[in-house]
Design goal:
Radius of gyration: 45 Å
Strand order of the largest sheet: 11-9-15-21-20
Number of strands: 22
Number of domains: 5
Low-confidence stretches: 178-184
Strand content: over 45%
Largest sheet: 5 strands, antiparallel
CATH superfamily of the largest domain: ACT domain
Oligomer: single chain
CATH topology of the largest domain: Alpha-Beta Plaits
CATH class of the largest domain: Alpha Beta
Number of helices: 9
Helix content: 10-25%
Shape: elongated
CATH architecture of the largest domain: 2-Layer Sandwich
Length: 404
């Protein structure tokens, strides 16, 4: 406790000559001046005393003709004096501490985990409408109310947890799989041909078949009609009703293929000149530490953004942006004949693979690639087999009245 009080009042280390030392010590004792750690060094004595007592020994020293020299000082008064000399630094430090305290009272990041059907952007917009957003004081957040709002609004979310760690709000949720037992009734429609071809096979599950295997059809022809006639005795038509035509109709046919590749093309060639710009962004403002001097050169720009934080849970609304500028020039190049043919072959292979992904079987292809002065042309035909799935709604005027 005594050490703390000495630091609080301030301590000085004093040196005086050894002449008249006994008289000096007696006068200090008579005036109740406390001296600490008295030590003799060669021709002088050293001791420590409080700053307030130091001012009281000056008349004593003058009376006996000695000169007290201060060789050291410590304690709160001297510490405050040093800070007083650096007012700008002191003010900046206090302002930073106040700003840090203020910012740590707010929420600056919202992390949502568990989204599968719903997007994180949609949930953030919903929370913002409910008053939950970045920049709000966390004391204004009602965690239970936020959890209930999410569950009541999104009925396919079965579990929600809202938790704050530092300046970061963590929302964890679990989506339930809702099974819709109601089977949507399909509207009456015809099954039609999506292209020209020959019917390879037909199997009808509902509706009236309009073609048979081996028939040649055009694009838009009805393959299975959604109009079903109800007949009576001697196949006399009694009535008709409409259904959703369903069945497996496989068409084979030939489709054209045509692709053109320009032999001359432009390409970026980077000059190797590169610059970076460091920026700070926050509270709707951005401060750039230097600006790219564009003297007419073409540049690519790549920007990386990182949020500033003391730890992953204590983030701040300030981001550090690093923008990289890479200078390039445009040069005109030309494909060699082998390169052009290889590119067109790859394009054809990608197209055939896309047909396979669409469940269209490729039976064969006759495509030729020719290289001219300015272009490379791939042209020919592709034999395919596909199952038709295109439907066309039946209008009421299409329904036939039964003959009398």
């Amino acid at each position: 406790m005594r050490k703390f009080l000495n630091w609080l009042y301030g301590m000085v280390e004093v040196r005086i000559g050894e002449d008249q030392i006994e008289r000096f010590l007696n006068l200090c004792r008579n005036r109740e001046l406390q001296l600490y750690q008295i030590a003799h060094h060669k021709t002088e004595y050293c001791f420590q005393m409080r700053l307030s007592d130091y001012w009281r020994i000056r008349p004593v020293a003058k009376k006996i003709g000695v000169l007290p020299l201060v060789s050291g000082r410590k304690g709160l008064p001297f510490w405050l004096g040093e800070w007083n000399k650096r007012k700008v630094f002191t003010g900046g430090f206090l302002l930073f501490a106040l700003l840090l305290f203020f910012l740590t009272r707010m929420i600056w990041s919202i992390d949502i985990k568990g989204c599968s059907y719903h997007t994180e952007e949609a949930l953030l917009k919903f929370l913002e409408k409910q008053g939950v957003h970045c920049g709000m004081f966390y004391r204004d957040l009602d965690y239970k109310r936020t959890e209930d709002l999410i569950r009541l609004t999104y009925q396919d979310i079965s579990w929600v947890s809202v938790e704050r760690v530092g300046t970061k709000l963590h929302i964890r949720l679990k989506e339930s799989e809702l099974i819709d037992t109601a089977i949507e009734e399909k509207k009456p429609a015809d099954l039609i041909a999506s292209r020209d071809g020959i019917v390879e096979s037909i199997v009808t599950r509902s509706g009236t078949p309009m073609v048979k295997a081996g028939d040649e059809v055009k694009k838009g022809d009805v393959l299975i009609s959604g109009i079903v006639e109800v007949t009576g005795d001697y196949d006399a038509p009694l009535s008709t009703h409409l259904v959703y035509a369903d069945g497996d109709v496989i068409l084979t046919g030939t489709q054209g293929y045509h692709s053109v590749l320009e032999l001359e093309y432009q390409e970026k060639v980077y000059t190797g000149k590169e610059q970076k710009r460091i920026s700070l962004r926050g509270f709707g403002y951005q401060v750039d530490f230097f600006t790219w001097e564009n003297k007419g050169e073409a540049v690519d720009r790549l920007t990386e953004q990182k949020k500033l934080y003391l730890n992953p849970s204590l983030t701040f609304p300030i981001s550090l942006l690093t923008t990289t500028y890479r200078e390039y020039s445009i040069v005109r190049l030309r494909y060699q004949e082998e390169e052009a043919i290889a590119l067109e072959e790859k394009k054809l292979a990608d197209y055939l693979a896309k047909l396979e992904e669409e469940e269209i079987s490729v039976l064969g292809q006759e495509v030729t690639i020719t290289v001219g002065k300015t272009v490379c042309v791939a042209k020919g035909t592709i034999q395919t087999r596909r199952m038709e799935k295109r439907h066309r709604s039946i209008k009421e005027e299409q329904q036939k009245e039964p003959s009398q």
